[in-house]
Amino acid sequence: MEEQNLVYRGKSKDVYKIPEGPHAGKYLFVFTDRATGYLENGKTVFDPGYDTVVGEIPGKGAIACRFATYFFRLLKEKGIPSHYIETISDNKMIVEPATPLGLPAEHPEIAGSAPLQNLEFTWRNNATGSFWRRYPFVTPCRNLHKVVEVWTKGDSDILITLEALEETGAMTREEIGQSVELVKNIAGIVSSEFASKNLHVIDGKFELGRLKYGDGKIVLIDEISPDVLRVCRGYAPDKNGHCTVFRECAVTRLSGEKRTIKNQNQVAAADFIDIFL
Fold first, then answer.
1. Which CATH code is given to the segment(s) 3-99+114-276?
2. CA distances from 149 to 125, 145, 165, 170, 205 (A)
3. How many Cα atoms occupy the beta-carbon half-sphere of 235 within 13 Å?
4. How much is the CA Rg of the chain, to the nearest whole Å?
5. φ/ψ (deg, to 5) at 155
6. What is the side-by-side strand order in the sheet with 43-46?
7. Cα torsion 226, 63, 265, 43: sign
8. Were 93 and a residue from 29, 64, 78, 191 both cysteine, which residue would form a disulfide, CB within 3.0 to 4.6 Å?
9. Helix (H, G, I), strand (E, B) or coil at 180
């Protein structure tokens, strides 16, 4: 695909507008091997919960594309609306053009002003990752009942409250309610599918938007891939859904004012190819 047709280059995939042929005007997703994570003691640690691209994992793009295809087709069977059309190769997918949820800057002429480009919805079955780092008074791996958070998506993701979304006019109260319900429905389907494979989804993130040529209804866009899910083995919940093996699994550290948490039972994204594909 020609560079002039590039619409967006993200952390894990590139998006192009298809200029001609039967899918002219649609978008092409090219899943790449780029991976996010962090550096620990000079070593690269790949973790989809982080925002910085730290390297590449060979074959990751093809795995992500096949994985996304699996779940887009499953969600379609369950009646979940999305922008998915079809998958055409190991790492390429065709989707309907969609507009991410966002808001233009009210006064772009003001220095420092910026638009709200798009929103990302995080859902959490258990307390770990950035949730635990922000709320360290919570026991790691505590059951969070699919709590939904909303983030601005960019080079550095920023948490935005549901109340702020409404007050700024980014979304109406009705749209917020519909979006949270949609995210929880998708999270339930994805979690159940993993549970059928004896795996547990700790948390995940989805992007919502409106189809460019649709009726304005909010649907699932972007992708569902190993990049947007954190999964573990050995989940052992008590009667309240709190994981009872958190002391053996969750490794936490405090260095100065910086907290980290690592789940030792987390399943590497590359392993999904053996489990689902």
1. 3.30.470.20
2. 12, 12, 11, 15, 9
3. 25
4. 19
5. -60, -35
6. 43-46, 34-40, 53-56
7. negative
8. 29
9. helix
Structure tokens at 45: 């640690």
| Cα–Cα separations (whole angstroms), residue 132 to 89, 138, 206 | 38, 7, 20
pTM of the model: 0.86
C-alpha span between 67 and 196 (Å, rounded): 16
The CA-atom distances, in angstroms, between 242 and each of 20, 202, 248 are 52, 11, 14
Mean pLDDT, residues 2-19 taken together:
89
- Residue 205: both structure tokens together: 């993130």
Closest CA to 31 of 5, 56, 2: 56
Alpha helices in the chain (DSSP H): 60-77, 129-134, 162-167, 173-195, 246-249, 272-276
pLDDT score of 273 more than 70: no
**CB neighbours (10 Å) of residue 51?**
16
- Please report, for the chain, the start and end positions of each structural domain, with discontinuous segments joined by +: 3-99+114-276
Q: For the segment 178-188, what is each residue's pLDDT rounded down to a tens digit?
A: 999 999 999 99
199 and 230 Cβ atoms separated by less than 8 Å: no
Phi, psi dihedral angles at 253 (to 5 degrees): -140, 150
What gap in Å lies between CA 68 and CA 66, rounded to an integer?
5
Round to the nearest angstrom and report the end-to-end CA distance of the chain.
27
Q: Of all residues in the chain, what percent carry a pLDDT higher than 90?
A: 71
pLDDT in tens, 187-225: 999 999 999 999 999 999 999 999 988 888 899 998 888
